[in-house]
Amino acid sequence: MELKYNYECILSILVENQPSILTRIVGLFTRRGFIINSLAVGTTEYTGLSRIVIALPANLRIIDQVTRQLYKIFPTVKVFNLTNVPSITRELILIKVLSSIEERRQILEIANIFNANIVDCTNRTVTLEITGDSKKTVAIEQMLHKFGILEIVRTGKIGLST
Hints:
The chain has about 160 residues and is an alpha+beta fold. The protein contains four helices and nine strands.
């Protein structure tokens, strides 16, 4: 049976800090053949709890199934589906761009338009830090492509309901 993915879903999973909890949760997704687009893990405002944010292509039926399975994993405290509720999602990207002295002004103008931070500058490269939603990160990546992108690194998506 072929799965039909309607849109990207974002799940925020609150879990107790225990050894191998991340392995168990990721294993749940991989055993069922789900693709994880993004994964971010961090501490929370609660002592002893972490938040795992997973972005994956899915549909409502798949998310319902995954949510029920996540609650069967003992250290899972709460699962939030941020897909169809008012929420704020962000991603951080570092992009190292090849830059001659002549092109540097154009790159800095693009950085200014997208409210990006310059985190490093050498004779041959400029490294930008961009924080925003997926549309913003894709747009700046497309604009910088003509200069020659040397490296890109991304965090996973993170999000909170509003």
